Amino acid sequence: MSSALNVSASDATVSPGPMPRPKPIRWGGTIFFKVEKIVFEAPRCRFVEHSEVFETMFHLPAGTDGAVDGRDEEHPIVLEGYQAVEFEALLKVLYPTPDDFIAGTWKLQKQEWIGVLNLSTRWSMKKIRKHAVDEVSKLSLSPMEKVGLGREHQVAHWFRDGLTELVSERPIRSLTELKSQLGVDTACTLLWIRDQTLLGRHGVPFSVTGLTLGMLVCHFGCPVAMFPSDINCHSCSQTIALGDPNAIYLASGYENAGISTSLPATGPVTSHFTINLKCVMCRKCSKCAIHLVDRNCTKCSRRISPVDYRLHYQMDLSSQMDPSQKILEEFGDEIASYESWDE
User: Based on the number of CB atoms within 10 Å of its own CB, is 181 exposed (0-12), middle (13-18) or buried (19 or more)?
Assistant: First the structure.
């Protein structure tokens, strides 16, 4: 009686070409692990193939009594400090089922992939780790999760992106929340970066270069200069030409100064400073250049106080308002250490 498992050469399907010689599959025997209170049984080959940690472990000599950990269910390798649910998820990745291949994906939940990432990082399973990072990256991660998971599992781009998103959030999270989840040092550093990079939208002493008399405009946004022609310095009588960028400057540490900005998709950022005229200094005498009296706008005729002038100034604030550079300056060493893990 013929068997379906025994097919003659004449009945076999004709191959379109020579088939490569098959390589013998060696599973290396079965190994037993105990995680929490659960004993897992698996072929040892994938652990040896993907992890130097286990390869070294499996080559350790037997104990003095001749017992070899992992040889059977009564003598498992006990993995202290690990979670059974994470180990089970790792086994799903190391030993996918035919259904997994047919589906073209592993059916793991978010926390399972994070568990795979945790174990693959601890046990130096670099290929498995990279795949876990790719899979978790496809999922929704909050900025706090990116920082926490990036730091815990040494994933540089999560850590960097999470810090950037936290700094850019509006409204900013409370100091209490940041300290409780990120630690005091990280929380305070993030708030400092936020102040350094984003306060320009609310009032910050940016350095204004090339200041001219013609940049002083009406507080109410009229597009014409408050001074239509040259004036003389109120302190030394030196002529201040309307468009001379070397005649006046804005004193550092000025008070009652603020800035509002528009952020177009392209081109320079248009910034409107509200300033006090007593901070506009003559370069020749280094004293107040403009007489501090109320004036009427030449266009709308509204009365403008010396403390309510607007400075129409264009500059590229993108680098000053982008926290990425500050984050690299403050966390660069930590980010680099995580990047080196995957090299």
Answer: middle
DSSP state of 215: G
Question: How big is the chain, counted in residues?
Answer: 343
Q: Note whether 251 and 281 are within 8 A (CB).
A: yes
Residues 6+ apart with CB under 8 A from 320: 197, 200, 206
Q: Give all strands (DSSP E) within the chain, no chain letters.
A: 30-35, 38-43, 77-79, 216-217, 231-232, 239-240, 248-250, 258-262, 269-275, 280-282, 295-296, 303-304, 309-315
Cβ atoms of 290 and 330 within 8 Å: the answer is no
Rounded distance between C-alpha atoms, residue 139 and residue 113, angstroms: 10
CB 48 within 8 A of CB 58: yes
Gap between the Cα atoms of 103 and 91, Å rounded:
18
DSSP annotation of 242 reads T
What per-residue string of b and e applies to 292-316 under the rule 16 or more CB within 10 Å gives b? eeebebeeeeeebebbbbbbbbebe
**What is the pTM assigned to this prediction?**
0.60
Q: What is the pLDDT along the chain (343 residues), one digit of tens a residue?
A: 445 555 444 554 555 667 777 666 665 678 899 999 999 999 888 888 888 888 877 776 666 565 667 788 888 889 999 999 999 999 999 988 887 777 767 788 999 999 999 999 999 999 999 999 999 999 989 999 999 999 999 999 999 999 998 988 877 788 889 999 999 999 998 888 877 664 444 444 445 667 888 888 888 878 788 888 999 999 999 999 998 988 988 775 544 445 444 444 444 444 556 778 888 889 888 899 999 999 998 888 889 888 888 877 655 444 455 678 788 888 999 999 998 877 6
Amino acid letter, residue 148:
G
Interhelix angle 126-137/84-94, rounded to 10 degrees, is 100
Helices (H) and strands (E) in the chain, counts: 12, 13
Determine contact, residues 30/72, Cβ cutoff 8 Å.
Answer: no
